[in-house]
Amino acid sequence: FFDLLPDNGVTEILETCITVLKQLAVGSLKGLDGLQSMCPGGPYQQWMNDPTGSNGAGGATYFALASEFEPSEPGLKQFVMNRLSDRVFSGQNDLIVPAASVHDANGAAAFPIERKHVFDQGAGVAHSGYFADVKARELILSWLGE
Length: 146
Known about the structure:
By secondary structure, the chain is mainly α. The chain has six helices and two strands. Helices cover 41% and strands 7% of the residues. It is globular and about 60 Å long. The model has no long low-confidence stretch (mean pLDDT 78). The termini are far apart. Strands 1-2 form a two-stranded parallel sheet. The relative contact order is 0.12.
């Protein structure tokens, strides 16, 4: 990106700051368990996908929430984020995760997940809004009661 801008002190400082931030982010990744758990082939995913059930999840029923996000309120930020996500994922997504990756077959024993709910475009539910959505909370509570 910075290659498109003319060289000057400001772009050099910004480029240096971004490089330092990237290095800090990579170095601190090991301390972020939530991100580590999403590492393909990582220990947590291997444990979750253990077909023998030795992880204690043998016979467990999995549920999934996904979304095909489209902005429901006017605003440049949501419009731009949605357009970028649609180009990156080239399919249904909730701005962060492709919807199909939440529930479709992926080689793991627990997939595909049959008990799922995919919010349609009209719902306006993005990845960070699942727990704020009334329908999502109702689904989660009903699934926990099963």
